[in-house]
Write a structure and sequence with these properties.
The complex is a heterodimer of chains A (290) and B (331). Chain A is mainly α and 290 residues long. Chain A contains 10 helices and no strands. Chain B has a domain of 85 residues. Chain B has an 8-stranded mixed sheet with strand order 6-7-8-3-9-10-12-11, with helices on both faces. Chain B starts with a strand and ends in a 14-residue tail after the last strand. Classes of the chains: A mainly alpha (290), B alpha/beta (331). Chains A and B meet through α1, α7, α8 and α10 of A and α2, β6, α3 and α6 of B.
Amino acid sequence: MATLELSIGEEVAVTPVRRTRRLGPLFWAAIAWMTFVFVAAALANLLPLLSPTDMDMLERRASMSAQHWLGTDGLGRDELARLIYGARISLIVGLCAPVIGITIGGALGMLAGYFRGRFETLVVGSMDVLLAFPPLILALAVTAYLGQSILNLTCILGVLGIPAFMRVARAATLTLARREFVIAAQALGATHARILLRELLPNVFLPLFAFFLLGVAVTIVAEGALSFLGLGVPPPISSWGSMIGEGRESLEIAPRLAFLPAIAMFLTVLSFNLVGDALRALTDPRQGAL
Amino acid sequence: MTEPALLSVEGVSVDLPTPRGNLRAVDQIDLRVGAGRTLGIVGESGCGKTMLSRAILQLLPKKAKLSGRVMFDGQDLVGLDPERLRKLRGRSLAVVFQDPMTSLNPVLTIGTQLIETLQEHLELDGNAAKRRSVELLAAVGIPAPEQRLMQYPHQLSGGMRQRVAIAIALSCEPKLLIADEPTTALDVTIQAQILDLLAREQRRRHMAMILITHDLGVVAGRTDEVAVMYAGRVVERAPTPALFKKMRMPYTEALLAAIPKIDAAPHTPLPAISGRPPDPTRPIQGCSFSPRCRYAAGQCHREKPSLAAAESLDHQYACFHPIEVAAGATA
């Protein structure tokens, strides 16, 4: 009888609410800010911006004016241009690194959760090793050895994200693989590859994607931290982290040089978190009901 | 049964290692199902019905140990090459599971799940598979099948979902359908519809069926033969009419008596089988039903009765003190 009651409750909850679930103004504000940052970063070359690297020693730390909308930094470079070009770096690294994480971590996690056994022990063990290694030391070692570049920075942040994605994918796969629809697929003669790709992946993808958005937020912050420490992108290129680092030297004279990129980063990270949370809330109850 | 059996289960046992010791879920079972025939397997929860069906399909948990032979269509499924087994499943052997809430993938549309099965096994192209899916959905009594193809499982009611699960199982015209408690999770009013649907499709396709249930009422009018299971063993096996006319095993009688009667006076206590099934990790000496059996005598506690035929070859039971009276009188 319990199943009967459940099924009734689910019908009532799912049918009317599903399409009309409100996402709220906060969600749309976050989407708007993300769109704005994306468009600005993508079209940076086409926008009538000053060069982000041209120095003007006579106009150092100039305040806001018609020529420099957000003023100039300590070396007389246009702050607005640096902010927008910086968004490029932050977004490229912030999106590409979690892509590495979600691909490798997701694949390893699903394989581990589906096949179990010795392979799972090996994967979980090696991920624990990776987690136990201090991330900053690893980043330092890699940049010292391979040099500072956007590619190296993306790779190192991506690799550091693998264990978390692996865990999310494995946990989701573990519970799903015991569901009857997987046995039903086996009973219909599905291969392992088919079960993993067609039956499990669409189910695992929802929580994994929500986690991906949170991963983007974390990576942007991590990239900022590394750039702040001078381990990020090499100097003439700007990123939000390195801009905060440079602005630190003139905090008393021109605090906006540190605060503007910090605010941009704060809003972007908050947006990714809000969207990620909203998407997770949207997909979670439906998963639970079935 | 003179015709050659489509499926013959010969001395199948399933052992599951548990922290409390070895659990014998299925104990030395022999069964035969002829082409186009229906076998009912009846027993209470935990008696090994589902494990037996999984053993037939070779879909046991990895740790389980299976012994015996499962002959299907002339080949032994036990130890069959995985690739050949995979081709056999779906195309010749299909299953309908108990709970349609979990036996369909929640994030794929009905259409995707049906069409892909068809494409996989029958090598149809997209359009042909889609047409066939619509036909199948219509055959299992789903109104507006074209629109349903685009819907997700959670948009359908439980009965509808079970119909879809049946459509998927029937999609490749299997020779044997195993229905593992197909109506247990459904509303009572839907149960009869689903059972009628299964019976109708079975006749139309001349398909053999194993109907697993805990409800003797379900198998009464819909099976050719019934096997009653208790504690992993078949305790009585007979053609359905013979079983209901003259049941010999006290457990079968107790099961039948436990079905509530609609014409009983109000506040009549429901007859229940007292006690619990034996712990399968600690097999008991003697008949496994003896602790709960009201006819049990000294011999029942010492020796295990074997499944043997008595007056007719078809009717077998494992009991030292079979019931002599016509079973109808016990109601």
